[in-house]
Amino acid sequence: MIGIEPAVRTEETGRPGHVARNRRRILCVFPVYARSFGTFQYAYRLFPGVRAFMPPQGLLLIAAYLPPEWEVRFIDENERPVSDADFDWADAVLISGMHLQRGAIDDLNARAQGRGKLTVLGGPSVSASPDYYPGVDILHLGELGDATDALIARIDESTSRPAQQQIFATDTRLALTQFPTPAYQKIDMANYFLGSVQFSSGCPFRCEFCDIPELYGRNPRLKEPAQICRELDAIVAAGIRGVVYFVDDNFVANKKAAHALLPHLIRWQEANGFPLRFACEATLNMAQMPDLMAMMREAQFVTVFVGIETPEEAALAAMEKKQNLRLPILEAIENFNAYGLEVVSGMIIGLDTDTSRTGRNLLRFIDASKVPLLTINLLYALPKTPLYTRLERAGRLLSPEAAADRLSNVDFLMPYDEVVAMWFDTITTAYEPDALFSRFRYQTEHTFANRALHRPETSWSLIRFGLSIMARVLWHCGVTAEWRRQFWELCWPLVLQERIDEVIHIGAVTYHLLNFTRDIREGRWEAAFYASSNKNTPVPGAGRIECPVGIGDR
User: Fold this and answer.
1) What distances in angstroms separate CA 287 from CA 50, 64, 133, 189, one per listed residue?
2) Of 33, 25, 151, which is closest to residue 85 (Cα–Cα)?
3) Pick from 526, 530, 214, 524: nearest CA to 400
């Protein structure tokens, strides 16, 4: 750390021990996302007031951690852009974001500095790749901890811009049990497609392409169940409706802790009239935990995102994804479905083990698994991953200049054009309307029917909200959509059975997926979730965030 000694933190409060001597105005800004397959922009129009995907958990945590004497203004640019007046109000601008927001981060930094403001950047992107951001005044690397305390002391001492970039790197992380409740009161949760909450950080597995162990550790750190219940209280008070997503890197990273949390979630739901449904991300081995899945069903979990990556066993072994080999993948998906959990899956094309048959194999798997929603991405090497290191040593990591005209920074073993064409054929075939609605039909019969859902306590405002959503779904999916026949064939019987939640879910997911697939066919797309958003390279022959969960940043 540069420039100042760390403050002494007060463990009992989860706030920095530094007592602010000066009043400060802090503008916390979360950058806009590039359009993405997994952030469901097309579906927002079906939900009144929704303008953004999911609250930025990490920056809301920072906003809550700042000294209470300071004024804090929070803006998510996915809801509205920051104005010059916002910048002029602030003494310092705090920014956080992921790799796919890199361009927007640079833009925010330039705008803030153009108004003469001190800029500070933290979050997963800068923590993994501080060299991406040479123009930011201060970098915060790592999680909440001693560097955060030192940063607060630095801003309290002066808000002048430094002559050269300062870096504050966390050596001692704050225990999750000492985290304050994120500042949900500073946003309107009703404007978000999903809510978010964090229970744990880190993952014990070492998947080759994943940066989580390097950034957050392999020994999961945990909050107390009572903390999660307090945060859920705050989320509901801030206006959330529908699904809250556990943003944990792996919900079952600590199986004992997950087992201990679920009874608390069940009791919270019962005490509050079952206002929420939950979704999470987990490894495939969760399918071997029937007791846990039974409690998840009782707690109203409806969706689990699983990184299946590929159905080819040799590829899974090569990428160190051996936890996916403990149980046949199709059997694991059936186990999830038996407890009412709809599986969402991440898939990758461009692996070293891929052949010309990989696309066909993936389509056969999609058809057999009946998973409706899959994020199918080209392999992209993130910094601080074993994949990045291996490719760099082998001379197969493309320079930024070489990657600028491509959709990945990986020099594939197969010819590049063949890999991209295989991706294009796979994703557009998987999201043909007949194929997508067929997979959802299976879900209505073999997954949704296995849920034990409780309807939330009704009110006139909730009824009006539900009717407004249903009207929009029926109009956009059942009247104006080119695929309205497939929609009505599946959903009209559900309407007659009063399975309205399922109709809304199917309508919202299909509306987004089929519109985004249209964009892909027309060349307005990104094949790698982490690729920059300024490419329009045409697909030969043509004219993942982690975090797509259907309806329900770290």
Assistant:
1) 33, 36, 41, 32
2) 25
3) 530
Supply the Cα-derived Rg of the chain in whole angstroms. 23
Beta-bridge partner residues of 180: none
**Cβ distance 232 to 276 under 8 Å?**
yes
Torsion 201-303-486-425 (CA) sign: positive
Task: Report d(CA 297, CA 292) in Å as an integer.
Answer: 9
Q: 323 and 284 in contact (C-beta within 8 Å)? A: yes
pTM of the model: 0.89
Q: How many CA atoms lie within 13 A of 53 on its CB side?
A: 26
Residue reference for tokens 């509205």: 80
The pLDDT tens digits for 40-56 are 999 999 999 999 999 99
Please say whether the beta carbons of 281 and 248 come within 8 A: yes
Residues 173-209 have pLDDT tens digits of 999 999 999 999 999 999 999 999 999 987 777 777 7
Average pLDDT over every residue of 320-336? 83
- Residue ranges of domains in the chain, CATH in brackets: 25-169 (3.40.50), 194-446 (3.20.20.70)
pLDDT per residue over 452-498, tens digit each? 989 877 777 778 888 999 999 999 999 999 999 999 999 999 999 99
Write out the DSSP string of 487-552. HHHHHHHHHHTT-HHHHHHHHHHHHHHHHHHHHHHTT---SSTTS-S---PPPTT-----------
Helix ranges (H only) for 352-479 are 358-369, 386-393, 400-403, 416-430, 433-446, 460-478
